[in-house]
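In response to reviewer comment 3 from the previous cycle, which asked for concrete evidence that the modeling workflow produces usable outputs, we include below a single protein chain processed end to end. The sequence was submitted unchanged, and the resulting structure tokens are shown without manual editing.
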Amino acid sequence: MPLPLQVGVPGGVELFIVLFLATVVAVPLVLASLIIYLDAVDRNSRHVLAWTVAALLGGVVVWALYFVVRDEVGGNGLTVKSRP
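The workflow returned the following structure tokens.
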């Protein structure tokens, strides 16, 4: 009769580690995309959805690019409207 440790448990610790690492990667991506979405909406950008999806899929490169060109994409600081 095999010992329980030799048989293995489906999922077990390995599944927990994989899910934990996926969460650690996914949460900052979603939060940064949300910040970019809200900023683009405040600036009346015509490309809100494109910037949001690009930020979600492109990572740090798109985040940096957005914050460099966000004045050209939307309005400048004088035309920013606040959310209700």
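The chain has four helices and no strands. We consider this sufficient to address the reviewer's concern, and the full set will be provided in the supplementary archive.
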